[in-house]
Amino acid sequence: MLDDRKLAVLRAIVEGYVSTNEPVGSKALASRHNLGVSPATIRNDMVALEEDGYIAQPHTSAGRIPTDKGYRLFVDRLSAVRPLSAAERRAIESFLSGAVDLDEIVTRTVRLLAQLTRQVAVVQYPSLTHSTVQHIELVPLGGTRVMMVLITDTGRVEQRVVEVAEESGENITNVAVEHLRTVLNTVAGGKWLTEVPDAVADLPAQLPPEERPLAASVLSVLLESLVERHDEKVVMGGTANLAAVDFSASLRDVLEALEEHVVLMRLLGEAGDPSMLTVRIGAENSHEGLHSTSIVSAGYGVGDQALAKLGVVGPTRMDYPGTMGAVRAVARYVGEIVARQ
Amino acid sequence: MLDDRKLAVLRAIVEGYVSTNEPVGSKALASRHNLGVSPATIRNDMVALEEDGYIAQPHTSAGRIPTDKGYRLFVDRLSAVRPLSAAERRAIESFLSGAVDLDEIVTRTVRLLAQLTRQVAVVQYPSLTHSTVQHIELVPLGGTRVMMVLITDTGRVEQRVVEVAEESGENITNVAVEHLRTVLNTVAGGKWLTEVPDAVADLPAQLPPEERPLAASVLSVLLESLVERHDEKVVMGGTANLAAVDFSASLRDVLEALEEHVVLMRLLGEAGDPSMLTVRIGAENSHEGLHSTSIVSAGYGVGDQALAKLGVVGPTRMDYPGTMGAVRAVARYVGEIVARQ
DNA sequence: ATTAGCACTTAAGGACTCGGAGTGCTAGGA
DNA sequence: TCCTAGCACTCCGAGTCCTTAAGTGCTAAT
């Protein structure tokens, strides 16, 4: 059905349309992309490609543009991820290695990706799920309040203020807090976060009765902060790059979708091994407002452990090989940097 | 020079242009804003207003639109901040009070402001400058590394990994860390952050020699994290609202300016008592890309202490009374909520 | 000081034309 | 059987022209 030449034509159409942003016709194709055949032949191929739904024409007597399905085929079979130049890789390395902080790593990564791809970049914070407990700290804040700080081996810090029920407030002594801290760290230290709930389940029973209200309050907050999916934290940048593009959907819809972080999470979050590139094209995105965009994403992490994902959002009409190269490269470096922390 | 009627005309022009987004002519003015005079009279006034630079016409035979100077006069003398309705205030209250976390307060505030004003909202994190040290925690991470966590009374938590110089690495004993923690909290606890550098200056001298390398490393990181202006952290939301507006400058320029957080900080940061509303109109903004936008900002804080600022960015053609009302109201509530934490 | 009347300007929108790019189809050639 | 040349057809987009509506500035009268 699709012989080599037809595929070559499709590739040429995608590349042409991506670079010029104008529907590409048979004559232009024949002259520029020396395919060795006449425009008429190309037209015949185009008809076939159109019947199969890979390309479409905006109106009669216009050139062809790729459909979502066409881009999909292009990405899957007709293109190779374009590796970055040595200079680009050095730039990434030096730009990211200057970060002191998990926050800063994420912020810089976003800016880097946006700049590299000239699109909107999205980076998810490293997930708590694959971390272990490094330390749990309890700090009496005076009154009936205690601050709980959870530190993970991946450098993540979660803090929460714990409000202890009023009647038992007088029992918050430094001794009790210190005791609880010791016990907590003994029981939960080094455990995977997913194991913590089980590990602390029968902890209050082991404590003297007067310390139990405090322990109960702290534990409920701790468990709560584990349940909350903190990998839902994302940072976005490069929205200015959207202004240059004209979407078939309104720019407003796209911006709105991007601002709903929950949506973003779904987009990045679905499926995908770490270091695997995921490309979602046009209507493949479940969210309505993003039907005219494509999303290229990858997981990053330490070793083969996926900590989180990052990616870029751009028009379906994007430079896939280049974008994929940039996303992959950045994901790798970020993984390294996070590991180094 | 500017009698009452001319001012009334200016006000009518501003209000008309803001609501219709079209240049407003003398006839429309006379009929809608019953000023009790004929169009011809209004025209005469318009000529005077134009000579003084308060209004301009895009081209001959078009109506007038206000200039930056015109908006300025309108804001300063012709308008009153419009208070929010009771329902709106209740909505703010309930929306903000659900936040558990400083991060969440900020995030929710941004979304709230954006929704209320239908513009881009910007919220600065509470500054460290006006906080006191609640607690400093040190956690050995194994090897030559220690995590330092600084907790302030305003609920802010700063964490840093401290790398202790290699040769002295063996000296990181739990005893030394605990000792340093105790001493640090004794010396710095309850102090204003600005006082901390002085307070800890001669601390190493008081320690046994084998603990000094550790102390020196921790202190240098601590001081560094105090110097870094963490009130430079800002969160932005509602960019989708920009899509609806057409700026004289390109949308891209505006988005770019907004993404440069440093620029935002300058914009919000300059001058202004807490609870004072600042309005910067058009070219009054130092940044080129924002010459066609106005910024309404206010400080928020506990009592009369300004912790940080928040504001919105919109087209110069904005509903100033309403926007100012929303910004003021949100600033007040956020101040309260932060205090309550 | 205000108003009515009038001539003038200008952008926006609609109708029309025209050229170019591109197509589909058919018939002839390797 | 596949490719190519040629040709008639379609349709968008740019350009031109015209008209309309809104608005102005000026002058003279109240």
Automatic annotation (TrEMBL), chains A, B:
Keywords: Repressor, Stress response, Transcription, Transcription regulation. SUPFAM superfamilies: GAF domain-like, Winged helix' DNA-binding domain. InterPro entries: GAF-like_dom_sf, HrcA, HrcA_C, WH-like_DNA-bd_sf, WH_DNA-bd_sf, WHTH_transcript_rep_HrcA_IDD. It comes from Lipingzhangella rawalii. HAMAP family: HrcA. Negative regulator of class I heat shock genes (grpE-dnaK-dnaJ and groELS operons). Prevents heat-shock induction of these operons. Residues 103-324 form the Heat-inducible transcription repressor HrcA C-terminal domain. NCBIfam families: hrcA (TIGR00331). Belongs to the HrcA family. This is Heat-inducible transcription repressor HrcA. PANTHER family: HEAT-INDUCIBLE TRANSCRIPTION REPRESSOR HRCA.
